[in-house]
Design goal:
homodimer, 5 helices, Alpha-Beta Plaits, 2 domains, alpha+beta
Chain lengths: 254, 254
Amino acid sequence: MQNQKRIRLRIAYDGTNYCGWQVQPNGITIEEVVNRAIQKLTGEETHVLGASRTDSGVHALGNVAVFDTRSSIPSDRFAYALNQRLPADIVVAESDEVPLDWHPRYQNCTKTYEYHIINSRTVIPTKRLTNYFVSFPLDERRMQEAAAYLIGEHDFASFCNIRTNVVDTVRTIYDLQVIRSGDEITIRISGNGFLYNMVRIIAGTLIRVGRGFYDPEKVKTMLEAKKRTQDGVTAPAHGLMLIQIAYEEEKRKN
Amino acid sequence: MQNQKRIRLRIAYDGTNYCGWQVQPNGITIEEVVNRAIQKLTGEETHVLGASRTDSGVHALGNVAVFDTRSSIPSDRFAYALNQRLPADIVVAESDEVPLDWHPRYQNCTKTYEYHIINSRTVIPTKRLTNYFVSFPLDERRMQEAAAYLIGEHDFASFCNIRTNVVDTVRTIYDLQVIRSGDEITIRISGNGFLYNMVRIIAGTLIRVGRGFYDPEKVKTMLEAKKRTQDGVTAPAHGLMLIQIAYEEEKRKN
């Protein structure tokens, strides 16, 4: 019998067919499918601990999860072995060993998300599940102007789903860029953590600014209000992708 | 009762969930779903005529189809009205009226296809249904060198599925580019027409060249052989997208 070790996985997925990350009674989740694949591989009852509990329809390039095992499989081979047992829409990109007390949520880290918009009158069917199609013209310079107010340490209470009861709503956004390339607009945001729905509320609010419904200064007013008002519109889940979680001890590359 | 008129549709679709364009007994096809949407809209029994009978899994931005109707709906409103009756993976991008004898296959036109490759060791799940993932390194300069032999009027008998009985295998390729952007390689090809599986066989052959299995000159030898040998490997359907069909009288933009 091997000693127990903790394996960390970097997991990419297409969230379309899942009810989000976290196990729940109403439908199949990514966490559940990953648990099952590990159990099939090791024969051990397993419950992974995930870094980010992404919502239904949200995608990931680099979510992180850990689990403990006594399996003799080398740590870096778990990625390959699990991919043989996972469906095509969930891929383990890498695996390594971490200390037994390493927890993916209780570590300083930088999380990076992208929100993908296609600003076009016509929907491209192959992109419908990974982009939010906005048919009215968006001014990305106004969006970037508004985004600038959000960078830094702020109380983001106004940019948080009201159905959450987290006490501390202060977070730090390190960077927030609105990048247009033809019809495609990408909102790229990095921070030390995000409140429930925070990225989608920021995206939805910036879209209102881009459309001309809100002035860029509206974002500043919302920040200062520190209230979970409903001024910030939540953009749909399927445009969102968790790009990377970089832990401080290492700053792994994407 | 209105006079009969012929409506032309430009149709975009995600081919993932369909057995290709053409009606067939073994599964649901795009043609069939479009027929049903038109029938629901006009109340008339309808059979569209498609320009390109794309294979199962192949996608389109601009396939073209026509149908005849006595409906009083303005020609350019069919796009909107049909989209209300189509599933999300099939979209009519535009509609207009053409002469009653206009046939989408018996017209001089330029067809443009793209074949999408991601050259990476790790599969990105959200891109798995629209890109062919190639894990070994591809040299796109070698691929472009090989591609140059194919441009112009040639007998493409060696680049044709053996299960076809077309007599004339001469076609003209106007342009063929291999474009790399980071991990993404796009093979973009325009011509006056393509034999069955021709674009996928060209893509599969260029991938062999890019990998180093074939010299670029191999493509020249294959062309000269004018035989349906199996040297050309058929790349998988899901990497292929029909971008545009530009008819000579108008050269509609994408």
